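Methods, example record. To illustrate the input and output format used throughout this study, we show the complete record for HAD family hydrolase. The sequence lines were provided to the predictor; the line carrying structure tokens was produced by it.
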Amino acid sequence: MIKWLLFDKDGTLIQFDQSWVKLGIQLVDDVCAHFEIDQREAVYDAIGIDGDAFRPNSVMASGSLEEMATIFNQYTDIETYTWVCMRSQQLINTRVPESKLYPGVHETLMKLHTCGYQLAIVTGDNARGVSHFLEQTGLQDLFACVISTNGDNYEKPDKRLLTPLWSRGVKAEEMAIIGDTDLDMQTGRQAQCAKTIGVRTGLGHEATFDEADLILDDVTQLLEYL
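The corresponding predicted structure is encoded as:
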């Protein structure tokens, strides 16, 4: 029986935050500068940056920092992952987030909460970004657990990211994860969640959702499904 609903934030609950695009491009530029990578345009192409946007289904659009570092490593003899993680967190700490809920999301979350579901956020954003989101949207009282990535935590799709839930005694068969990327679905699979649910908002228009048990147009359709 599903008791916990684990929501991704950007692209799932709120419209995709363009500040992430600027941050991502800045990170690639900083990596190229720090490791003296001259083939910046080749790195852009390999990682999925087209002009001032992310190419659908690319590592830049929905991959992990580890996958990004693997690409950077092809252009340098030095392992880049540790530095990429550090610089990524520095940039995230300076980000000014945008938090515009998709239509109907607030009402849907309220109804789910009223129905007795425990709601959680599982995001690659840091605690500051999540706090800003909760304050802007007025959803502070709805989420029983908030899991963010703060530079010292695991990242999607590593199931250890859900340790705060395991420590509460929450079982995998009690959880459903909802997100707009294949990375979200992989997180649910690795954690053996009861259901992995993809939504065609945010980056969900380009996701394959091969590992999704269910694909919805948006979060508001959860009510009918549950």
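Annotations derived from this record:
The longest strand covers residues 118-122.
Residues 200 and 217 are 5 Å apart (CA to CA).
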